[in-house]
Specification:
Residues 124-222 bind DNA. By secondary structure, the protein is of the alpha/beta class. Helices cover 42% and strands 24% of the residues. The model has no long low-confidence stretch (mean pLDDT 89).
């Protein structure tokens, strides 16, 4: 997933960023309302994490502005104040959930998974194509009823491709989904990742392949199509 994090506590944002990146997500971190708003309006995010207190203002203003612009990204707000009025104000601004500092990183990850489950895009609990079965919530993949182990990044790539159905996913779009703004990536990195995914599917005996449409991108389809 591509995640926007508006957080001005550098130590916290670095810790959360590492945890999310290790889970296979691309995380863009900003400390101000202004920078976060520019990124939110120009990039397609799957989730956002917004602190109430940012360097140049109130995170609730950021969420309110995003909602007014029609951005429905599931949003978790963070705050150091555990008062009902603050939580109500955040939810009324358009946040979907609220978490009070200090918090457990495991709880934050669980809340993000819950937000993702509730979003319209992921109502499907299971994807089937050929002899491949992919469950996004548990990040489990089986081929011919046998479990296939993928890295977090391989899972993220498969998730993007399988949700696209028969639509082509351009290499640039895949790269932007897998890598944050501060991460350098190249066409070779995407090609290497797709090669690893192809090899694992083939080794497992999948009747599905990642097909390259030269100059266009990638599509997941049954072999022989």
């Amino acid at each position: 997933m591509r995640i926007l994090m508006a957080e001005n506590d550098r130590l916290l944002s670095e810790a959360l960023g590492r945890r999310l990146t290790d889970a296979g997500h691309a995380v863009d971190v900003f400390a101000t309302v202004a920078d976060s708003e520019i990124a939110w309006r120009s990039t397609s995010y799957d989730l956002s994490i917004v602190d109430v207190m940012l360097d140049d203002g109130d995170g609730r203003t950021l969420v309110r502005s995003a909602r007014a612009a029609g951005l429905r990204t599931p949003t978790l707000m963070l705050t150091a104040r555990d008062e009902i009025g603050d939580r109500v104000a955040g939810l009324d601004a358009g946040a979907d959930d609220y978490l009070v500092k200090p918090f457990s990183t495991d709880e934050l990850m669980a809340r993000l998974r819950a937000l993702r489950r509730r979003s319209a895009e992921v109502t499907v609990t299971e994807f089937r194509i050929g002899n491949l079965v992919y469950a996004p919530q548990s990040m489990s993949l089986t081929v011919a009823e046998g479990a296939v182990r993928l890295t977090a990044q391989e899972h993220a790539a498969l998730d993007k491709l399988i949700r696209a159905g028969d639509r082509v996913t351009p290499k640039r779009m895949l790269g932007e989904h897998l890598y944050a703004f501060h991460q350098d990536w190249s066409d070779n990195a995407i090609e290497t990742l797709i090669h690893r995914l192809r090899r694992k599917l083939s080794k497992a005996g999948a009747t599905v392949e990642v097909k390259t449409l030269r100059g266009l991108g990638y599509v997941l389809c049954e072999t022989g199509e």
